Amino acid sequence: MMRFKNIFLVGPMGAGKSTVGRQLAAALSFEFKDSDQEIQRRTGVDIPTIFEYEGEEGFRQRERQVIEELSGQSGIVMATGGGTVLRSDNRRDLTSRGVVVYLHCSPEQQYARTARDRNRPLLQTEEPLARLRQLTEERDPLYRQVADIVVSTERRGTPSVVKEIRRRLESDTP
Known about the structure:
alpha/beta, Rossmann fold, 5-stranded parallel sheet, 13% strand, globular
C-alpha cells in the first residue's frame, strides 16, 4: 500500500476533506496538511478576510503557492480547498505527486453541513444552496478529471469513508 508518496483529497466544501484527512493520515501514519489552514497560518487572517481584501483571485494565488509547496513533500495526506482544481497548475501538481481521492457528496448534503459556517465566503449569498449546485456543476468534472479514486461521503460517517479509502488504496485497482 505504501507505494504512494502522498494522498490528496479534493472535493466540494462540506464533503469532509479535513475530517477524513486527519483520520486517514493517522491511520496511515502520514502527516496531515490542510491547504486552507496553511493559508490562514501564513497570513494570520481567516479566508473571508483574504476574500474581502484580495478577492477570490488573490486567494487563488496564495492557494497556488501553498499547493505547489505542500504537494512537493512526501508522506502527507492533504485536504485541499474546494476550488483548488480550478487552476491547471494545481491539477498537474496533485495528479503527478500523489494519489488523488475525490470526496463526493450532493449539494444538499454540503448545505446541511455548511449552512451555519460563516467561514465560507462563496456561500455568503441569498441562495446558498443554489450556489452550491452551481459550484458542483462547474467543478465536478474537474474533480473527476484528477481523481484516481472517487468516494461518496453522502450520509456516511468518517470511519466508514476512511475504511473505504484504505481498502481502495490497498487494492490493485483503486
